[in-house]
Specification:
There is one protein chain. By secondary structure, the protein is mainly α. About 60% of the residues lie in helices and about 5% in strands. A two-stranded antiparallel sheet has the order 1-2. A hairpin with a 5-residue loop joins strand 1 and strand 2. It is rod-shaped and about 115 Å long. The N and C termini lie far apart (about 115 Å). The relative contact order is 0.04.
C-alpha cells in the first residue's frame, strides 16, 4: 500500500512591530529611511541614450523610454526622407524651368522676341 506524502503547508510568519502589534511578515511596513535621493550620471553617449537615461532618472518609465528608442530614429528617418524629396522636387523644377526657358528662347520667333521685350519693359515700369 502506497501513502501519498503531501508537503507540509507553509505557515505564514508572524512578527511583532515596535508598537507591540502583531502582523504577518509579508504585510509588515517597510522601514522609512528618509527621502530618496536619485543620483543621475549622464556620460557622453548617443543622444537617444542620453534621453533614455534622463527619462529613467526622472521616473518616466519603461514605456516612454521604449517609445523614445523606437520613434526617435523613426522620426529622424521620416523627416530626412521628406527633406530629400522636397530637395529633389525643387531641383527638378529648377532644371525643367531652365530647359523650358532655353528652348523657348532659342526657338522663339520674332514675335516671341518682341513679347519678351514687352514683358521686360513692363517689369521695369512696375518697379
Amino acid at each position: 500500500m502506497t501513502v501519498n506524502h503531501l508537503p507540509e503547508p507553509v505557515r505564514p510568519t508572524v512578527v511583532q512591530l515596535p508598537d507591540g502589534t502583531h502582523v504577518y511578515a509579508e504585510n509588515a511596513p517597510a522601514t522609512y529611511a528618509g527621502p530618496q535621493v536619485v543620483h543621475q550620471h549622464i556620460h557622453q553617449a548617443a543622444p537617444d541614450k542620453t534621453v533614455q537615461r534622463i527619462a529613467l532618472g526622472s521616473g518616466v518609465g519603461a514605456g516612454a523610454v521604449a517609445a523614445g528608442v523606437y520613434f526617435g530614429p523613426l522620426l529622424i528617418g521620416a523627416l530626412t526622407a521628406i527633406a530629400a524629396n522636397i530637395a529633389f522636387l525643387a531641383f527638378l523644377a529648377l532644371v525643367l524651368g531652365w530647359g523650358v526657358h532655353t528652348v523657348v528662347k532659342s526657338v522663339g520667333s520674332p514675335e516671341a522676341g518682341a513679347a519678351v521685350k514687352n514683358v521686360a519693359r513692363a517689369r521695369r515700369r512696375r518697379r
